[in-house]
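Weekly sync, protein design subgroup
Attendees: M.S., D.O., the rotation student, P.L. (late)

Item 1: inverse folding check
M.S. brought a backbone from last month's batch and wanted to see whether the design step gives back something sensible before we order anything. D.O. pointed out we never logged the input encoding, so this time it goes straight into the notes. Structure tokens as presented (566 positions):
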């Protein structure tokens, strides 16, 4: 009997039982140090963002602030990868030399919103330790009479095929491969993007001419190969990813009901992993039960050591869609983690709107601890050298480091910070990871009776050995008490208002400066039980938006099992 069969039997025994033992629940909740936690953030029609138009400096700032707020909320829920819709339908959210602006930003197709939305999103994502991949819709180019489609048809009169009311690039034409490679090269050349994410890289299921499946797969693979070669020649650390149909093919004991990537729409996604022209897959697994679990195992078994993070159809939780029970999604997440797979949410607004509690489940339970994105060890295994010097400022509130060296050829290094109350800090334990993918070589943080460790990480995700800080400030000293606010993991002791009597609220920020919660500033304590574990800065918020830094605090809960190791 094949290994897959044993796995399926084990899965069935776990999933379809009425209840779970405490030990089984603890096993499922183990939070790994490395795991992709992604979200698709759509811009078409402003579905996820933006919900207002940028037609002046003031409205542009409002549009930017909306994205900041979305990213803050995603960060709080452990999301570390943003798939941002960048090429929409032969239109873009950045100034392209090939295609016009989409109207989602300014309200008028072809008109600039007054700023570069892609550059802004990448910068804001990176400030929060998130990877940002440019989501490129490939073959569809929109309604036949839409702005982008008409311009592309004028440029390539014989390239675009009309199916119903929509236009599609012809996947059989070599021009399609060259042109899409041009678009992806432009993005990779001009932006500090972490990946190029290809959507609808397949034949339309309504393609009017019957396609030989083998030849069809060759045509789509030619496009993927062209994009891979063009991007990797510029920046080999930029991931090439895609979102294939959620079932790769029929399985010996599971039928895809005629809807699969390999035969139906000519996507050889698993073959792209094997050939080395794809780094990461986000299969659109918007299914449940026996249409989900066996196919998820198949993606894992055929991953060739690359990254696979199945997409979850959380939009089906909505009563306006299929009104799924939330247990359908949460069980799927548990199984994906059991098999070393990541997870991706489709789509952002259903997640941040907390439809049927899915956001709360992630932020307060399943993804309470941060996670690093898995390293691209197939592209480079050379680890950076560790930092050599750690320095505290005189007030012992700012940690700086230097001396790390990149050996991979990337443009810069990133840094991860770990902390614990024991020495040496265990950097294999996800519970000790307090700041990820920092681009600066210093951070505001109190010494305050804690031990710290710093690692360097290159653009491939390879992490150095840790530089350990050996001498913490003695716990209980007057400086320690002044710097670190008392917190038992659920309740934060607020400082006396003193000179900030006008403040009615306090703001909780990450160490990178992103606000994640606003709490009433009254009484002696504030409820922080819904915040994930981590290190935080507390600020007052008074009249005229005046703020004062009140101190820092740690949320540490001892009941979360974690996976040791990378």
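Designed sequence read out in the meeting:
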């Amino acid at each position: 009997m094949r290994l897959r069969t044993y796995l399926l039997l084990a899965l069935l025994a776990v999933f379809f039982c009425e209840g779970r033992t405490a030990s089984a629940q603890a096993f499922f909740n183990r939070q790994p140090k490395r795991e992709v936690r992604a979200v698709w953030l759509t811009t078409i029609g402003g579905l996820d963002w933006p919900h207002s138009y940028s037609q002046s400096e003031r409205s542009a700032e409002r549009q930017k602030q909306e994205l900041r707020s979305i990213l803050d909320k995603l960060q709080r829920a452990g999301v570390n990868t943003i798939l941002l819709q960048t090429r929409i339908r032969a239109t873009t959210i950045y100034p392209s030399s090939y295609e016009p602006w989409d109207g989602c930003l300014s309200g008028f197709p072809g008109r600039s919103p007054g700023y570069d939305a892609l550059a802004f999103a990448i910068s804001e994502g990176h400030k929060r330790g998130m990877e940002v991949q440019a989501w490129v819709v490939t073959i569809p180019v929109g309604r036949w009479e839409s702005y982008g489609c008409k311009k592309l048809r004028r440029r390539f009169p014989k390239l675009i095929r009309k199916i119903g009311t929509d236009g599609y690039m012809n996947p059989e034409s070599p021009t399609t491969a060259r042109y899409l490679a041009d678009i992806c090269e432009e993005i990779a050349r001009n932006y500090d993007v972490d990946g190029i994410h290809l959507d609808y890289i397949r034949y339309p299921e309504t393609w009017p001419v019957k396609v030989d499946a083998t030849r069809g797969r060759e045509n789509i693979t030619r496009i993927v190969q062209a994009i891979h070669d063009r991007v990797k020649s510029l920046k080999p650390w930029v991931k090439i990813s895609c979102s294939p149909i959620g079932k790769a093919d029929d399985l010996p004991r599971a039928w895809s009901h005629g809807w699969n990537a390999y035969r139906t729409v000519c996507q050889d996604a698993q073959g792209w992993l094997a050939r080395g022209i794809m780094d990461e897959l986000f299969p659109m697994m918007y299914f449940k039960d026996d249409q989900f679990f066996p196919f998820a195992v198949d993606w894992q078994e055929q991953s060739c050591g690359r990254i696979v993070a199945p997409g979850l159809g959380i939009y089906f939780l909505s009563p306006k869609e299929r009104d799924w029970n939330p247990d359908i999604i949460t069980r799927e997440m548990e199984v994906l983690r059991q098999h070393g797979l990541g997870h991706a949410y489709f789509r952002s607004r259903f997640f941040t709107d907390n439809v049927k509690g899915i956001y709360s489940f992630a932020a307060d339970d399943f993804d309470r601890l941060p996670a690093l994105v898995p390293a691209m060890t197939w592209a480079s295994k050379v680890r950076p050298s560790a930092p050599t010097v750690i320095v505290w400022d005189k007030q012992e509130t700012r940690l700086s480091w230097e001396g790390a060296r990149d050996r991979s050829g990337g443009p810069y290094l990133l840094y991860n910070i770990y902390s614990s109350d024991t020495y040496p800090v265990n950097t294999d334990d996800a519970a000790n990871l307090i700041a990820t993918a920092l681009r600066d070589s210093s951070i505001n943080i109190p010494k305050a009776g804690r031990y710290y460790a710093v690692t360097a990480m290159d653009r491939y995700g390879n992490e150095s050995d840790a530089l350990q800080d050996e001498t913490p400030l003695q716990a209980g000293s007057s400086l320690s008490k002044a710097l670190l606010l008392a917190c038992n993991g659920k309740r934060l002791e607020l400082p006396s208002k003193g000179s900030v009597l006008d403040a009615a609220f306090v703001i909780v920020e990450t160490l990178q400066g992103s606000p994640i919660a606003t709490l009433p500033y009254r009484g002696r304590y504030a409820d922080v039980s819904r915040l994930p574990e981590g290190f935080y800065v507390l600020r007052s918020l008074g009249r005229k938006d005046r703020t004062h830094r009140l101190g820092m605090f740690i949320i540490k809960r001892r009941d979360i099992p974690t996976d040791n190791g990378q």
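Discussion: The radius of gyration is 24 Å. Residues 213-234 form the longest helix (22 residues).
Action: P.L. to compare against the previous round before Friday.
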